[in-house]
Amino acid sequence: MNIRSTAIACTLALALSTPVFAGPPFLTDDPEPVPLHHWEFYTFAAGDCTRDGNDVAGPAIEINNGAAKNTQLHLVVPYAYASGGGTSASGLGDIEAGVKYRLVEETKRGPEIGVFPLLELPSGNQNRGLGNGRTWTKLPVWLQKSWGGWTTYGGGGYAYNPAPGQRNYYFGGDLIQKSITPKLTLGGEIFAQGADAVDGRSFIVANVGGQYNFTPGFSLLFSAGHSIQGEGHQIYYVGLYRTWGSGAP
Fold this sequence. Notes:
The protein has 249 residues and is an all-beta fold. The chain has a single domain, classed as monomeric porin ompg (Porin, Beta Barrel). The chain contains one helix and 14 strands. It has one helix spanning 5-8; strands at residues 38-50, 53-68, 71-84, 87-92, 95-104, 112-115, 118-121, 136-147, 150-160, 169-179, 184-193, 203-215, 218-230, 234-245.
């Protein structure tokens, strides 16, 4: 089996003076890029358990950089573990690279809008169940709106996967979160995805999680959820986040 995209999906921007999560630890992403000249670094583990086996990305690292105005460069490098059918394997998984670009900034009445094309590179060993075997891509559009201590973001897109045994599919989600205290933010999402393999099924996942800020630039991210419709999935994410750069908190 290959490492599922939902287990290693990590795209985010934590750009406020007191960071709040966007993207990780959730599957739904946001349109806000990392601020210009800022860096973000994550070390994390994420898992997807199904009836057929377990897929885990971890330890894994994610690096994001505000390379230009409204533009973020993104890279995820995972150590992968896959088990199922009485066998298991571990090693380098598929590397994810992408560019997030903000098309429209948020206004008092209108949402922020951005695109985040992603390439999944076949660096993992397909024969050992650690990779897809071919390069594939995801093309999403995300929107976000904030008011008071609340933020909601969502959207979706299309994944094109030409590897044998895999399928193209649509995906999308919606999330709402609230800053409970300056240190703690909690949220929940509903995320839906079409069947990503010839023998797979579509599913809808409910996921809850949050972020705890040890300092303004160092945080713990966590989430857990499971399918509420379709193919059965139990998912989780736990990670540490660090940000720095000119004007970073």
